[in-house]
Amino acid sequence: MIIRNEEPADIAAIHHVVEAAFQQSMEADLVDRLRADGDAVISLVAEDDGEIVGHVLFSPILLPTMSAPFPALGLAPVAVLPGRQGQGIGGMLIREGLKQAESQGCRVVFVLGEPEYYSRFGFDPALAVGFASPYSGPYFMALPLNGEMPAERGRVDYAPAFAALG
């Protein structure tokens, strides 16, 4: 298994993986739009024997109400082919993405997802409580990459492509 940055030749395979994982095209279309808009900050694939079996994407988070905004990313989506789920591929993609985010100077990563799953990577819903977002609630979580949240409250805006999700 190789975790690597996406390449242009991977685009169709990524679309297939994301569509298969979510059993609909909405998230796959989101990935395509984020890429087209230049908002795919980190886009990684899991490749096994020449086949793309997983994908994760991190996009920019805007913090418009912050007097001193900090670099932040949103993790979404993460996808693994249905027949390969439960093998740790998603976790490998997330860990490598977080490592790259930190090396690029990102201070916080936000995610909307299942707390039981994402807490294993250090995401915590309590750290996101003070941040207003259309996704606020028990499934909205934050992970400070240097150990401390650089702020306790503000507004979190995802890349414009997310607005199409409704």
Shape: globular
According to DSSP, the number of beta strands is 8
User: Do you know the CATH topology?
Assistant: Aminopeptidase
Summarize model confidence as the mean pLDDT. 95
**Total of helices:** 4
Instruction: For the largest sheet, list the strands in their spatial order.
Output: 1-2-3-4-5-7
Report the β-strand fraction as a percent range: 25-35%
Rg computed from alpha carbons, rounded to a whole number of angstroms: 15 Å
Order of helices and strands: EHHEEEHEHEEE
Distance between the termini: 35 Å
Structural class: alpha/beta
As a percent range, the share of helical residues equals 25-40%
Return the CATH architecture: 3-Layer(aba) Sandwich
Catalogue the unreliable spans: none
Q: Assign the CATH class.
A: Alpha Beta
Quick one: CATH superfamily? Gcn5-related N-acetyltransferase (GNAT)
Number of domains: 1
Largest sheet: 6 strands, mixed
